[in-house]
Amino acid sequence: MRESNRTLHIATYNIHKGLSFFNQRVVLHELRDYLRSLNVDIIFLQEVIGEHTLHASRFQDWPKDAQYEFLADAVWSDFAYGKNAVYNHGHHGNAILSRFPISSWENEDISAHRFESRGLLHCELAIPGWKDALHCICVHLGLFKRGRYRQLEAIERRIRQLVPPDAPLVLAGDFNDWRGVANQALASRLNLVEVFQYTQGKAARSFPSVLPLLRLDRIYIRGFQVKNARIFHNRPWSRISDHAALSAQIMRK
């Protein structure tokens, strides 16, 4: 397999529901432009609105399509959306946008309690020239320590049951894990590598985006080597979301 066929460029981003701080304006159009500028193959997105009738009536520039469709546009030909939080005027969750065909997907409810609706979006991608499917899992874990432990257990259980040990795997998203518990659990028990832990010795500081202090967002891989990893914060990214965007170039072993 040629190196060009073995290399993937991926990113993860909590998009803050496509709204600026305090929900004063829609930033989806800027967000789409900046996501395109990353030139990545696969994007793992959190806090993506599938529908919101109040925002649609309030903002003139609110897109007619769901946010994941609007962001994918003509660049990422396939996408999957996992509806997690459902309310009277709409719903939001996680999404994966891909330049490659998504052959199957499933959204698993991993909510730890009724106050936070959380999901695990698991896709299988068909990469040209690869004999095995690429497994991609997008997550947004809860704010409470006990709930995150249960959610990490759910992630581990799903990977052990549904991802073959020799299959390529990317697990990315907002882990809300400022104590680094996920790093220890996922690396030690599932043989996963966090890309910034590998390249810089620690997970990336990603929150708040204007001056990142907390290491909340992660990209874990299995079956790949890390070529490079980047953090996108400060302006213009800090005008779009309170999280920094993370990207990595990875090569199939």
TrEMBL record:
Q: Which UniProt keywords apply?
A: Endonuclease, Exonuclease, Hydrolase, Nuclease
Show the GO cellular component annotation of the record.
membrane
MF terms from GO for this chain are: endonuclease activity; exonuclease activity
Can you supply a Gene Ontology BP term from the record? GPI anchor biosynthetic process
> In the record, which residues are listed under signal peptide?
none
Describe the location of the Endonuclease/exonuclease/phosphatase domain by residue ranges: 11-243
Looking up PANTHER family in the UniProt record yields: CALCOFLUOR WHITE HYPERSENSITIVE PROTEIN PRECURSOR (PTHR14859), PGAP2-INTERACTING PROTEIN (PTHR14859:SF1)
What is the protein name given in its UniProt record? Answer: Endonuclease/exonuclease/phosphatase
State the taxonomy lineage: Bacteria, Pseudomonadati, Pseudomonadota, Betaproteobacteria, Nitrosomonadales
